[in-house]
Amino acid sequence: MSHLGYAAGMDSFQATIDADGRIEPRDAMPDGYRKTLIRQIAQHAHSEIIGMQPEGNWISRAPSLRRKAILMAKVQDEAGHGLYLYAAAETLGVDRADVLDLLHSGKQKYSSIFNYPTLTWADIGAIGWLVDGAAIVNQVPLCRCSYGPYARAMVRVCKEESFHQRQGFEILYTLCNGTPEQKAMAQDALDRWWWPSLMMFGPPDSASTHSEQSMAWGIKRHSNDELRQRFVDMTVPQADVLGLRVPDDGLSYDEEAGHYRFSEPDYTELYDVVKGNGPCNQERLAHRVKAHEDGAWVREAAAAYAEKQALKEAAA
Ligand code: FAQ
């Protein structure tokens, strides 16, 4: 592209961003915008597919046929979210196989939350309620992301996450209205998942490297701390309905501000987990790599079939 053509493309990009319009795959965009989106969408896609593991762990141990069917559907939904997101990343010019290689070699990240173990059935409730709940708070604004394919993928993802959140809450509601042992199991799950869920929103604003630029580009609409606050405000009253105690001695309601005040999560834990030192990082990545290798024959067969069909069509 000529220098003039490039400048005109950047002007039109900025005009679209200023008018709160959508950037589409063939539109001109700055390299940094493309790179940021590839990083975020790929990390998001990886999170969806690695996120199948903690819950997949309980499919064979679900307490009833009904719970098993619901959990299988939920885990399949997460695979679907991964597919929409990899497809959205491909519109930016990357290849899905290359992006997966980056995940498998540990060069691209996935959400810290999926490096924690699911020790009891109540953890499946806690993941739906808290992890999908946090995902919704983070992702509803992404439906207005300036990049069209990502924004459109998020609409359906959010509808499904919202169903997931309710099924998680319902699991915990049932446990909380069951035996004292079941209620204790629910409390224990909340105790273990609360802080990691707050960390899903990323580092505090003061340490977030990408937020300012991503917000200027209309990729992110709110900062990490704003979304974390929104999540706490939404979730604490739900814990009250369950009769569970949020494990934060610093939690209080600020009437004047209309917000809950809460303690700062231990961000050294977040950085440590992101670096690969969480309780399940190695296991989750190894499982993912093995699943990919075991599935190689399916990809080869699909590619051979597609090639045959293309030859047939060309001959016809
Ligand atoms: N984990 O400058 P910022 C789900 C990294 S989906 C790991 O603030 P940014 C559904 C960040 O990449 C959950 N890394 O970054 C489900 C950056 O590193 P880099 C996933 C994290 O991008 C439910 C560095 O720290 N959701 O749960 C984390 O502006 C149940 C500096 O941070 C998404 O991906 C973290 N928690 O904001 C599935 C949503 N936080 O790349 C199965 C889309 C930060 O420079 C079961 N993503 N980092 O080396 C986003 O909204 C953003 O990317 C944030 C981070 C908010 C995650």
From TrEMBL:
Pfam families the UniProt entry points to: PaaA_PaaC
Q: Name one GO cellular component term.
A: cytosol
Extract the signal peptide range.
none
Gene Ontology biological process: phenylacetate catabolic process
Q: Name one GO molecular function term.
A: phenylacetyl-CoA 1,2-epoxidase activity
Q: What is this protein called?
A: Ring-1,2-phenylacetyl-CoA epoxidase subunit PaaA
Taxonomic lineage from the root: Bacteria, Bacillati, Actinomycetota, Actinomycetes, Propionibacteriales
